[in-house]
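Regression test attached.
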Amino acid sequence: MAIDCAQFEEIVHELERAGTPGFDFREDAFAHAESCSRCASLLDKVMALEFALDSLAVQDRGERASARVEAALIAEFRRQHAESAHPRRNLRLRTALAMAAALILAIGVTVPFWMNHRSPATGSPVAIVNPVSTSAGVAGANEVPVDNSSSDSEYTTDFISLPYADDPGTLEGGTVVRVTLSRSALASFGLPVAGMGSSEQIPADIALSEDGVPQAIRLVADADLDQTN
Amino acid sequence: MPTAVELTDEALLAKMIEGDEEAFTALYRRRHPSVYRFALRMSGNRALAEDVTQEVFFALIRDAKRFDPARGTFGAFLFGIARNHLHKRWELDKRLVPSGLGNEDMNGNASRNGAGKSQFSVAIQTGTISGNQLRAEGSRSTIPGVPEEVVSKETVARVRKAVASLPENYREAVILCDLEEMSYEEAAQALECPVGTVRSRLHRGRAILLEKLDEAPLRSAVGE
């Protein structure tokens, strides 16, 4: 295909670049340059420029950032992967801390209320006889409520250890206090609140260690409520 | 089992994401020179080019999953990050002239006015160069009668200054397409513009280079 000067100028910079229109028509461009001194001159200049650019690329091929940069990057890579190596552990720790904070806040609100309004039936601290079932995890809490120590008029779930709980042995001499907690707070501990009626506030027993730190928690339901469920 | 240096960029990246330090090192050593050269040619400043190179790979360490092969090559991805960091640096420090003018240049010298024509008139004593000759040779790396190292030294110095003095848009296109040998498509990915824009910028950038390195200095430089 014969090309004119305008078309030649359009493609002259890409005659050596595969996959471009110029490359596809390079033979036509060379043929045109043979018959047009102006375009031949332009072709000479363009090819000289390409040689010069190629030489520049070759000369700079050895350019590198200093070793300092690589060292800094490798240090950063190690730091990043050391941090991300235990994301689950970090997540569990954060979750446990959040739950502990929520529980302490809830107890801080409800225990003073209980101290002022405790009834003879539930108000007295009771000695714990093996109150904490450390094997009762969240899954166990979904089992049928079992009562070991509460009165005939109520059912309780097993005690569930709190995330930061100490060894159960440290509970000797501790007490169980009855509190009322919000449904959402109890649900966050994995307790089966679905079968506890529709009330937003649900009674629960909290096992405190001798130094007053909450260690385990269980739900308390009236027998009547259980029967209706 | 292939060694790290035999793996593709994508394979190295996948291993790097899993925490393989050797893969990251191999990827860095393979890819950082072109990133560094791009930043150096765009800025003319070695310290800034090192900073940008470091930032590019910091970004990769922090969020390697940002790379999407469907959107372009890994090389174009890195150039795109480098370009963004250069722009940020220029925004932060307007004193940095984004062409290497007024800064320590690539040869470690303090440049003043960039590519003045008088600097192009340094003559090389031997040989001739023409497009016809190059075409006949079929290679741009060997010119009969011209000591290659002499041509390279003088020609490169002049062209380097001319490239450095191009307006930014044209300079990017020339650096990526001519010096880093990227395709129009790859350059378009890196520059975040259409392929046609890359083509026209390269065309215009080369035309400006030809004006700067006009025929007489080019020919005199090779001894005609």
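Expected vs. actual: identical. Chain A has two domains: 5-62, 102-228.
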